[in-house]
Amino acid sequence: xxxxxxxxxxxxxxxxxxxxxxxxxxxxxxxxxxxxxxxxxxxxxxxxxxxxxxxxxxxxxxxxxxxxxxxxxxxxxxxxxxxxxxxxxxxxxxxxxxxxxxxxxxxxxxxxxxxxxxxxxxxxxxxxxxxxxxxxxxxxxxxxxxxxxxxxxxxxxxxxxxxxxxxxxxxxxxxxxxxxxxxxxxxxxxxxxxxxxxxxxxxxxxxxxxxxxxxxxxxxxxxxxxxxxxxxxxxxxxxxxxxxxxxxxxxxxxxxxxxxxxxxxxxxxxxxxxxxxxxxxxxxxxxxxxxxxxxxxxxxxxxxxxxxxxxxxxxxxxxxxxxxxxxxxxxxxxxxxxxxxxxxxxxxxxxxxxxxxxxxxxxxxxxxxxxxxxxxxxxxxxxxxxxxxxxxxxxxxxxxxxxxxxxxxxxxxxxxxxxxxxxxxxxxxxxxxxxxxxxxxxxxxxxxxxxxxxxxxxxxxxxxxxxxxxxxxxxxxxxxxxxxxxxxxxxxxxxxxxxxxxxxxxxxxxxxxxxxxxxxxxxxxxxxxxxxxxxxxxxxxxxxxxxxxxxxxxxxxxxxxxxxxxxxxxxxxxxxxxxxxxxxxxxxxxxxxxxxxxxxxxxxxxxxxxxxxxxxxxxxxxxxxxxxxxxxxxxxxxxxxxxxxxxxxxxxxxxxxxxxxxxxxxxxxxxxxxxxxxxxxxxxxxxxxxxxxxxxxxxxxxxxxx
Length: 706
Prior knowledge:
This protein is α+β, with helices and mostly antiparallel strands. It has 28 helices and seven strands. One of its GO terms (molecular function) is metal ion binding. Keywords: Hydrolase, Metal-binding, Metalloprotease, Protease, Signal, Zinc.
């Protein structure tokens, strides 16, 4: 019953049961059958039909339950082999169909697909509860757990035994039959609401497009942004016009460069009102229901709040510890915002703009400040930020750190023509895994950037290599033209690739402990650490080359970027941290009757949130938190992990630099390769020689360290 990993702003992977027909059964079997082909087998993307998902999942569920029942009914005394290892062998068919289903749900959604999701989500929750609330099975797991330290188990086997025992306990294995039934009902209700939330948000992102038609409306937009908008419009049947999509990758450059303040405000208001328009796609009632269900479940399971339940196994351990770290940073962040706003207002006043800085002005005037203070035009930088070249740079840096090479292949099926695939090889030439790259926005694809694991690495049943993917939402340029991305987008690419590297480096025995299957506030550590390699001269000099001349980015321009490193950190940290604080406060509110809009507004006021910028994810569009349980009461994880990553990168700078081979090997051995075989706090200490120090993070942001 191991599960593959879907990271970042992902919705819960729903699965469920519909009654199959005989005519569908044969095709549906293709979706759950063992993968065939090269590289140890590959996902059969060319065989997928939406109509086949329901019967395929039904068959896979039945198969998994039969496997589980056989373990539970075993009359032999429970052992690690006949119970824990037996569980590791279950659920393969369901994992395979769930992988395909998740890709279609997240990147190829259609009305037909969304209709299936609505029916399937609660049934998948019920299926999971049938397993996790199986009393006979839990008795066997608990017997192995109680004897784990005297049974001759390896540390990894003991960790796996704890993982199963803990998972079952936290799901309600020890509850009364009545309480178990209520927890199961709550999980089904939550699954329904997660799907509703996701589909409402996708509708607001997909259904709204602003078409620009005149030169006046395009004023200030660089050529590459215009080209991307033209391509997006043409894809939607509006050739000759320019489309601003209701996604972050489309609105951010518009807010940065458009000189039409009225249009900036219109675009900003539309984007930040997603899920909050009082219409059929409004998410406020759904959020209210989710919060009520979560706190009821937490109390049934013996926890005061959902936040306490979620953080029990995290590095932070308690909501209080997470809040303490956030509030350590918050005052410095908002103080910096006030400085940034004052600088922007000075420029606006000089220009006699006759305005007070509003949220739709922040990016626009921040760029003016950047240009004035640092003589740095980020659009000039963008000319050196070619998507394909930066992808090559990611691969090259991974080769320097971990010995990987990436070889493009075309002998495997893909889910969409935009997706490309690389074979990953070790320094000695052996096959490590496959990396799929799906970079472009399209209708039916959720917004954001994320990593998937299609198949977990393991050695338990022979050498099984991983298959990972990175997914983004860059807007395609004109045919034949390179796609230019922002510096921040480049950082995001390296971030998500860090998750992929975490999976590719995995070298463990059991799939449930593999790769990125670690604590939520630790999983972002390897990805955020990987961001540090984009700004290195070794990457920039080779791969940040001008899209027209091919010349590398000038040293003087790089120096300006470095000098401006702490620029706009008030905005960046406050935008993120306000979301993390509201997430935690929502889930610490207990039984309070919450109006999400009012709660957000009132709590931000208590925090003295600057009015000139919004939360990065307003509550009605907070997919991390309300499209699944994934990051609920856990959005703080990015800060927690960023403290780790800055402290860890200083291990490189204290040695011979970012490519120090000794530190890279220690990172591989103590962090990247061990998955969840070791407690993350212990793993970090093994790498760094001590606990992390928050001062490295504060120094990086230019905040006070005292």
